[in-house]
Amino acid sequence: MNAQENTPTPVPDEPALELLVHGVGGTTPQAMLEDTRTTRVTGDATACVHRRTDDLDDRPWDDQRPLREAYSWSNLTSGNGTRALWLLLLPFMIVNLAHWMRPAARGTRRTQYGFDVLVRLLALTLTVLFTAGACAVALDLIAWQCAGSAACAAESGWIDSLTGSGWWAQPGRRLALGAALPLALILLLWWLSHRTWSAYESASPPVRPRPDDDEPALLSRAGFWYGRGIVARLRSGHTAVGLLTITAALLTATGPHDRGAQGSGALAAVGWVLAALTAAGWLVVLVQLVRHGRTEEERDDAPEPPLARALPWGALALLLAVLAHTAWSRPEWLTSGRHPAGAGIFPGLMIAQGVLVVALALAAHRLHRQAPSADRGALFGLGAAAVGLLACGLGGVLTGGMTEWVADALDGSAGDPPEATIAGPPVILSWQAAAIPAWLLVVLGLAVAALFRVVARRRELEPGVRDRYPDEPCEPQEDRSRRIASAVARAELTDVAPRAIGWITGSCLALGLVCVAGAFTGDPPSRAAESAPAAVSAVADAFQTAGSWLMGAGVVLLVALGRRAYRDAGARRTIGILWDVGTFWPRAAHPFAPPCYAERAVPDLSWRMGTWIDSTGGRLVISGHSQGSVLAAAAVWQLDAATRSRIALLTHGSPIERLYGRWFPVYFGPAALRALHHDVSCWRNLWRATDPIGGPVGVAGAGAPPVDRGPLADPLHYGRNLARPLPEPILGHGDYAADPAFSAERADLFDRLVRGRPAALPGQQSAGTLAGSEP
């Protein structure tokens, strides 16, 4: 230390505050403030700031008992029971993440634009897939196949009214009635998106311009956390596409009949006109999707364009016209086999998704090669393509699982051997079902490899565990050393996760190609393998049966989990952890994804820090744990230089580099973290080797202390001693405040704030006066 650092720094009389931000899973303000008596000082039931009841007045800093506030945001992700149903929107959430995984290349606007468009198109195919799945259940299995089969209708009494000679018995009228299910699904998704759009994307960020930056960090842009415009436009386009998908399914059924020998020329002509209007609607949606992307430089609160606003209403009007055309009397029409659209739409969707994923991988790889070596992300820049493929695979499993489950429920096979009463779901869904066990074998192999890696790494670390506690006079304990080494080995699995995801997505792609190829045979796997040797045929039949059961069970499990979460607050909090990680990013690709809680939390924190410093002229230490550290960093980036000069950042258990920096290099890569350290020079990060989520940030400033302190000892003590006679727990990702390093670093951060020269706030004369020292 130099002489200046040894000189005691006078503590100023201005108020000072520590603002706590919790991590995943949430916690109560009482637990964060370590006091049962707390008072809400600002906010509402969804997200709010609390203080101890005894600390409602601002006061100067006290290292032993500082003035503290707790920002509680857990209700943004796990507040009420209806949010458990967001589990069914998991594919939409995953594909939305792909938008933010773009490699950190510079000067390649055309490639970046192409990357964003490809992600939006891939997200659009998921909306079509979900709508097509609902059509496969309602239009194909129920209205076309079961209602057209006397045996199936007899087994399902509730369908019996759609058979015989009644008004609803005609195929077109059955199809028009069946369209109510996919239409209800689209309207439900539209309503959920509109409701959450009004609640989440409407939080206005503070107006604090940053003219001090030549090239500010992307998360500091004025419109980054304000996505009303893009979500509204995407919602209109995806709603219209869902309605147009139902329209196309209906026209695909009526067209062959109307153009056949028993058809009507007038109905065929009307059908052609409606088909042309449907194609025109698709074209308009695609043009809108390509032309209008996300805007971040300024707040995107412009009114929704009239054309985008009219799209869903035009598509709905077209659907009503097609419903009337479909329900027109055709007494001679009989149905058999599968719905005509099923054989083409699902293989076509899988091919389109595969092409988009490959194109996305090529664009991402090009950006990856042009990015600085330090800013290159995981999987050689192919993270977005891998995540997009996983979203498509999960969407296919959910869609196929529901379809297979309904088909099994409707198929009242009887006799010896049993005879199916309906043709069953589209062939490609049967191939998808058969691929599920093979994919699970790949996942099981990866799990076994991870287990062997943990065991080998534990054996490697175990001899050196005792040496990490040189000041403790106790003998090595084999069991204690093994537990600590195992915790470190398990935590290190996070660093090899990209390789596992690469294997999983590679297997998904290979199995998808097999499914598409098998679908062109026209037969499900069990029938296609009949001419093969008996062993191969038995394996194919077993895989198809097991996969069909697994897909259906997966959907039922999600619904059951959502039902339990509706009743059980503990289960609801567990589900909320998924959204804490997955919905940090704004909805930029899919409007039906669960809403971005950060679009409420980041403005909340920015407003609170900015207004408190403006009103008191004091200093603030914002302390973020886990996901709370990411929110804290994003909020600090939104502030102007004068306000930032009075703020210190304390992160602990932070995934800001270990997860976000590797998967989202544009926003949290090394360059972005260096910019954050430049903006907030008083920054300290605590981490443990036993923490599977948090890690070092790897940033050091010239002439300033390094940001990282760690790895901290975990457990705090190896054995028993006079002060701690009972064994200390291995804390891993939790309770960083229990480590003495936390209080020491917090006090040091405040001391550095005092020694600094903060910029003058509006209306104040000089920074030196504010700092409590000579200018």
From TrEMBL:
Annotated InterPro entries: AB_hydrolase_fold (IPR029058)
Native source species: Streptomyces hainanensis
Protein name as annotated: Lipase family protein
Keyword Hydrolase attributed: no
Membrane-spanning parts: 84-105, 117-139, 175-192, 237-254, 266-290, 310-328, 340-365, 377-398, 436-456, 500-522, 542-562
Coiled coil location: none
Keywords: Membrane, Transmembrane, Transmembrane helix
Keyword Ligase found: no
